[in-house]
Each structure stands twice: as structure tokens, then as C-alpha cells.
Amino acid sequence: MAIGFRILPRARQVGAEWAERFRSLPVANVSDVMARMTAGGPRLRPMHRGGQMAGPALTVKTRPGDNLMIHKALALAAPGDVIVVDAGGDLTNALIGELMLAQMVKKRLGGIVIHGAIRDSAAIAAQDFPVFAAGVTHRGPYKDGPGEINVPVAFDGMVIAPGDLVLGDDDGLLCVPFEEVETIHAAAAAKQAAEVKQAAAIEAGTYSAPWVDETLRRLGCEGLD
Questions:
Q1: Nearest Cα to 155, choosing from 142, 164, 146, 143?
Q2: What does the alpha-carbon distance between residue 27 and residue 149 come to, in Å, rounded to a whole number?
Q3: In Å, what is the CA distance from 40 to each residue of 45, 94, 181?
Q4: Are 57 and 180 in contact (CB under 8 A)?
């Protein structure tokens, strides 16, 4: 098998029902219950008009500036899939544009993440189809390879394995490992419910935060009453 230029099968993937359940949860809440230890990096920002992204990862690792394997991944992707591309973070050449986006919309994919650049940014920004990328340039891509499909990729220390759940909103990206989806969803849903109660208390004027002074005392802060 040619390491660096190969297409592998995806052995497992989260189901569409889990993607739908996570879609109503802020990425920040999911991040909090994962101990704030996982993130896709602040450079990967939403380029689309707005809206949540949630779906199983179809991963691509490609040479910077080359989109040959992205085209192949697009042909292989199923409805709901999120194509996740590690292109080394290089912004010299755009890897997708308006025409590839149209194909993704037509196939009803869940979104695309590009650790690299896009072009046709105005057309992408006018649509709700989730596109996350590190930057924009008008220079187009090469189509020579090499690259790999369905191998683990990593952004700023966040590892994404094929079939993991990839989430995105205005705050950025997050990967929920396949094996931990149920546990993390339960914890994030509970946190969201607690925040709804806290927001209601703030609105009613009954909210208090005794933990602030308790923490300051424990840490030895001077000047407390």
C-alpha cells in the first residue's frame, strides 16, 4: 500500500441521529464538558453565512495547494458527511471554490473544513452550507496529488479520525470522538439546561454567584469583607 497516496475505507462513523442531537448544542458547551482541552485552532473560521455544522468526518490529507484528493473525497461522500481536509494550513493556493461548493450542496453534505484556503469567498459567504477555512486567496489549486483519504488528521493538536463527529459554529470547530459521543452529549445537554436556568435567574434578578468569594478566600485574596 502506498503510504501518502491511498484511499482507505471508513470503518465506522457516527449516525445521523447523533449529528442532529448535537446540532442544537453550542460548541462552547460541548468544549466545556470535554475539559476545554480540545479545539481545532482559532484560524479555522466559518466562511459561510451562518448556522451549525454537525456530521461524521470523511478525512483528507493532501499536499499543500493540491485538491486532487478533495475531488475524490467529494465523489465518495454521502449525505451528511463533513469533509475534513488537512492541507498543512498553507494559504498560498485555494483548495475549493464556488463550483465545488455547488457539488457539495447538491449532494447534501454536512459541510467542509479546510486547513488551508478557499476562494470565491463572496459566493460562499452568501450561502448557509457550512464552510470552515483558515483563509482566502484567488490563486487556484494544483491537481497532482499525493494525498490520503480516511486517515487520521490533526489541527492544532485536535485529532480527527474518520467517522468522528465534527461540530462547528461561530465559535469554531470541535471533534467528538466516535466512542465518546453518547457520554459527551449527555454532559453537554445537562450543561445547556443549567445555562438556560442561569439565564432565567439573571433576567429575573435572582442570580447570585457565591462561588466567586469562596474561590477568592480559598486562594488567599486580601481585602474581602
A1: 164
A2: 26
A3: 10, 20, 17
A4: no
Closest by alpha carbon to 65, among 93, 96, 89?
Answer: 93
The dihedral built from the CA positions of residue 97, 135, 45 and 112, taken in this order, carries a sign that is positive
Residue-level pLDDT, tens digit, the chain, 225 residues: 578 999 999 999 999 999 999 999 999 999 999 999 988 888 999 999 988 999 999 999 999 999 999 999 999 999 999 999 999 999 999 999 999 999 999 999 999 999 999 999 999 999 999 999 999 999 999 999 999 999 999 998 899 999 999 999 999 999 999 999 999 999 999 999 999 999 999 999 999 999 999 999 999 999 987
Distances, alpha carbon 153 to alpha carbons 58, 116, 205, in Å? 10, 13, 47
pTM, entire model: 0.94
Rounded Cα distance between 55 and 165, Å, is 5
Q: Which amino acid is at 46?
A: P
Please say whether the beta carbons of 77 and 109 come within 8 A: yes
Interatomic CA distance for residues 27 and 36, integer angstroms: 11
Q: Is there a contact between 163 and 19 (Cβ–Cβ < 8 Å)?
A: no
